[in-house]
Amino acid sequence: HTMGVKAALPRYELYFYNVVLCTAMLWAARWIFDVSSSNSNRKTFKTSVQPGWYYSGRKMDTADVEWMMWFSTFREHVIFALSGHVIFAKICSLLAPQYRSLVFMVYGMLAVFTSMGWAYVTLILSHCVLLYSISLVKLRWLCFVAGLTTLATFKMEPFISWQAGFVTGSFELRPLLFYGGCGFTIMRCMSFALENCEKKDGNYSILELLKYNFYLPFFYFGPIMTFDKFYIQANNPNLTRKDGEMWNICLQGLLHLGVIMIVAVLLHFMYILTIPSDMKLLKNISDWALVGLAYLNLVYDWVKAAVMFGVINTISRLDHLDPPKPPKCITMLYVFSETHFDRGINDFLCKYVYNYLGGKHDNVLDELIASLCTFGIAALWLGPGWVVFIWAFLNCFGRNFELWTAQFFTMEPFISIEMAISESMSRRIRAVFNTFNFWTIVLYNVLALNSLEFAKLVAKRLLLKGELLVISDQFKCILKSKRVYCPLLHPLPKIPAPPRQTLLLLPSLWTQTSKRQSRDYT
């Protein structure tokens, strides 16, 4: 029952809600700007707040190694590798389009060999051969067991150190590329194996698996595109485009470039990534600044995911593929069923676990089993750890609590009461109740992105002193209109690094305890 969820509201009312929301965010941003400006030379900021653009006269927040790697430190390497892929793919598409998937594979393997060496390529191939052999048995449960066991070898000692020992050298990106490529390889092999189980006649060849796995734009950084979709699109000889499609691709690329510039400017004026790591400073800042920090950290993480996946997706669209859509902004979320930052992982788990076990998602027991299995696999993908377990439990509970609440309110007399009022009023009432849900989503995911201490401090301030912010978000929730059933998934694998060192790679590399608890460069 979704009465009022999509009901239209008067335009002036929506304008009023937007003005209130924007005013609240600008007010919080002003507080964060003041804190950043007055503490730029703080001792605890020295490692992450570095000299920025010369003509800006300000320092820049460089705490996010992931962002700096992509768009500053190794920008030329990324551009060179992806440009080569685009050029070779275009030449092949013009001369021999029927072999383009093979060219994708060859270029990808050469790029991986050049960057990581023959030992790494051999390790990847061994996992591909192992999981391909198991897929020939065509037993779903065996494919899952084999895939998850293999994935666990990259999350637990001593297996993780043993496999990492195959890759040697001083290349700074090697640890990041190692775990990114290995983690996504296992997930792609699982998708291939599960699709092979569904194939009625015969089996897919191992060549198709290698084509799928070594597609360079997806190899290290994702997103995951399930094998059934990739197989159809990569082997489609019809390479015609719809009217205006090329223009849309170019516009998308320019949009991402513009967002990159905007983020770079904002990181010169608001140190939203560094401040949460200084608990002593956090205890002395205003409530608006603290809650604004929590909210903007999630918005930033969404922007980063949207841009990094967006760049990859733009390349894949040039290859006539239809990649997973970018994540949904936290500002547009108010239910756990919509909360996800990586739609590739989300689509993978929904297709093979959540929807497969949950059916129509209208049975409480089936939904509980489906969500437990889904978040159990998510916890393994993120890397076992207490923060990950807490995050998985809270999000799993939130998802199921939504279902229980929805079913409860479809009973009498609640359903009769809602049917008696207008749809627009129903939407307003739902927004009031969803305000709590929205801030619960924020707090649960702040826990994963920052630290337990920061999340506890935000919760304490929000619950005791956050009346004005809650009111502003009641207006925000009224603006939302769509519901889908998808778990929140964002990889946070465990990485064996020395204390106070952080290896970050979206979506494949995160620290075990939190993404931003440790800000030192590796």
Notes on the structure:
- Belongs to the membrane-bound acyltransferase family. HHAT subfamily.
- The protein is mostly helical and 522 residues long.
- Helix content is 64%, strand content 1%.
- The chain has a two-stranded antiparallel ribbon.
- The model is unreliable at 467-472 and 481-522 (pLDDT under 50).
What order do the helices and strands come in, and which of them pair?
Layout: H1 11-38, E1 49-51, E2 59-61, H2 65-73, H3 75-95, H4 100-116, H5 118-135, H6 140-152, H7 159-164, H8 174-198, H9 206-213, H10 216-219, H11 227-234, H12 245-269, H13 279-282, H14 287-318, H15 343-358, H16 364-382, H17 386-408, H18 414-420, H19 423-449, H20 452-465, H21 467-478
Antiparallel strand pairs: 1-2
Helix pairs in contact: 1-14, 1-21, 3-4, 4-5, 4-9, 5-6, 5-8, 6-8, 12-14, 14-19, 14-20, 15-16, 16-17, 17-19, 19-20, 19-21, 20-21
